[in-house]
């Protein structure tokens, strides 16, 4: 027992040195070290092989994509060519086909829209027409399913009374003769003021109407009052209507013989150049947002209904002033009152004529001597507001009642930031629905196509305007 206790004391005293001596003899064997090195080498070889494999795979995919797939389907360019003047615009949807053809450089043809075939993920932005004078394309949908903002092809032709085939984006014009019924017989407006006269050329009896009479002018003014002021669209339904319609993109016909109207519509052998009313109509897309007003003049009458509201009455005859058994509708025609025109504009300024509130006159166009002397120059109508891209119905009405000289001009002014400077030849834009701009040459050609020669006196009356005017694209003409 005593010996065991001594042994325990000895071990207790040597405990720390004993444990340290045991740790110094722990080490890795040579075989384990070789296995560890072999495993590290193997891991390196596997990593290198994996990287090389991925590189080869990526190179193969790239080669297959670029050299094989791309070479089999090369990109091609095709041109969409807007239809030419094959016919009037229509509200019926038209399916457009893409075909490979070379774009023409003819300036009278609508610019082609170029798209890429087999292009992936192509996104077409809508395209419109800028109203500042420079064209932009943010209202036209450049896609396979093209928007009708281009009508049936904007075109660049038109003028005078219009053309028979239309040029895509043009208002439709219809000719009415207030002297005749639908069947061609004398209408009720001729009662008591007509007589039968033998035509020396045809040797046939013809009915001649005294359209200069107060009775006929009064009755014609009443019909215009019903149609234009009261918006009774059936007021002209009972009168003779020319079988042919014409299509016009703008309205600029300086003073000329009224014979131009029935001759242009192909009814000169049926209708005498008096008691005539031509209604141009359609729906147009506003090229920009803002406050605008129409500016113009007509002999005898020019009227504009925009968005179903009268916004401009100009000329010698103003239907809104019509009263039964009165000549109040005549501003300065067939009257013995030299102050009639002056009194009319004084009443407008004094707000005594509600239908003409906001109207102004502009006699600053010196070359428009006929209209300056007759009706005090151009008439500026009511201000109205539009939003870019919105579609609005419009009617442009021109009329000649007694016969003789006939003409009209329709402009438009942007007054969003205030009116322009008086006398500025670029103050007003031309109201137009395609790229056409009236010139002496284009007007002479348009009249010549109808068999009419334009006298120099008419050429000298051409008004000035901004030739880079915005385009009010016609959507349909129903």
Describe the structure.
By secondary structure, this protein is α+β, with helices and mostly antiparallel strands. The protein has a domain at 171-476. Helices cover 24% and strands 24% of the residues. Strands 4, 7, 8, 10, 12, 13, 17 and 20 form an eight-stranded antiparallel sheet that branches. Strands 9, 11, 14, 15, 16, 18 and 19 form a seven-stranded antiparallel sheet that branches.
Short account of what is shown:
By secondary structure, the chain is α+β, with helices and mostly antiparallel strands.
Number of β-strand runs: 20
Average pLDDT, rounded to a whole number, is: 79
Strand content: 15-25%
Largest sheet: 8 strands, antiparallel
Detail the topology: elements first, then pairings.
Layout: H1 2-13, H2 15-23, H3 30-72, E1 76-80, E2 113-117, E3 127-128, E4 171-181, E5 194-198, E6 205-209, H4 214-229, E7 239-241, E8 246-248, E9 252-257, H5 260-264, E10 276-285, E11 290-299, E12 301-306, E13 309-315, H6 340-349, E14 360-362, H7 369-375, E15 378-380, E16 384-386, E17 391-400, E18 405-414, E19 429-430, H8 440-449, H9 456-459, E20 473-476
Antiparallel strand pairs: 1-2, 4-7, 4-8, 4-10, 5-6, 9-18, 10-17, 10-20, 11-15, 11-16, 11-18, 12-13, 12-17, 14-15, 18-19
């Amino acid at each position: 027992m005593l010996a065991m206790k001594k042994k325990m004391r000895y071990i207790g005293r040597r405990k720390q040195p004993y444990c340290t001596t045991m740790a110094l003899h722990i080490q890795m064997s040579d075989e384990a070290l070789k296995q560890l090195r072999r495993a590290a080498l193997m891991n390196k070889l596997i990593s290198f092989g994996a990287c090389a494999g991925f590189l080869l795979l990526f190179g193969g995919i790239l080669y297959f994509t670029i050299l094989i797939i791309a070479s089999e389907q090369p990109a091609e360019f095709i041109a969409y060519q807007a239809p030419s003047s094959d016919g009037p615009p229509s509200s019926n949807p038209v399916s457009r086909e893409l075909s490979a053809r070379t774009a023409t450089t003819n300036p009278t043809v609508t610019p082609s829209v170029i798209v890429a075939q087999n292009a992936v993920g192509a996104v077409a932005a809508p395209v419109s027409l800028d109203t500042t004078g420079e064209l932009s394309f943010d209202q036209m949908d450049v896609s396979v399913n093209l928007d009708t903002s281009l009508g049936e092809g904007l075109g660049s032709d038109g003028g005078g009374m219009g053309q028979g085939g239309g040029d895509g984006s043009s208002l439709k014009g219809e000719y009415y003769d207030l002297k005749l019924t639908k069947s061609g017989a004398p209408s009720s407006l001729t009662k008591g003021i007509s007589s039968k006269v033998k035509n020396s050329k045809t040797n046939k009896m013809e009915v001649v109407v005294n359209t200069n009479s107060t009775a006929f002018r009064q009755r014609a003014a009443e019909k215009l009052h019903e149609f234009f002021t009261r918006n009774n669209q059936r007021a002209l339904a009972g009168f003779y209507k020319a079988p042919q319609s014409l299509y016009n993109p703008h309205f600029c016909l300086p003073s000329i013989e009224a014979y131009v109207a029935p001759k242009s519509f192909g009814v000169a052998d049926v209708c005498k150049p008096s008691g005539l009313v031509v209604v141009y109509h359609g729906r147009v897309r506003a090229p920009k947002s803002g406050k605008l007003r129409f500016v113009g003049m007509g002999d005898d009458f020019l009227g504009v209904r925009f968005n179903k509201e009268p916004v401009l009455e100009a000329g010698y005859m103003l239907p809104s002033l019509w009263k039964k058994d009165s000549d109040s509708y005549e501003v300065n025609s067939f009257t013995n009152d030299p102050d009639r025109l002056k009194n009319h504009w004084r009443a407008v300024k004094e707000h005594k004529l509600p239908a003409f509130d906001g109207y102004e006159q502009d006699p600053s166009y010196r070359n428009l001597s006929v209209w300056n002397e007759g009706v005090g120059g151009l008439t500026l109508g009511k201000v109205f507001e539009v939003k870019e891209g919105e579609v609005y119905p419009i009617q442009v009405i021109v009329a000649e009642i007694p016969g003789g000289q006939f003409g009209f001009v329709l402009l438009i002014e942007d007054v969003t930031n205030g009116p322009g400077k008086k006398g500025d030849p670029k103050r007003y834009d031309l109201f137009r629905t395609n790229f056409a701009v009236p010139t002496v040459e284009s007007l002479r050609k348009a009249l010549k196509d109808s068999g009419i020669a334009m006298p120099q006196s008419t050429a000298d009356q051409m008004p000035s305007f901004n030739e880079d005017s915005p385009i009010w694209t016609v959507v349909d003409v129903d």
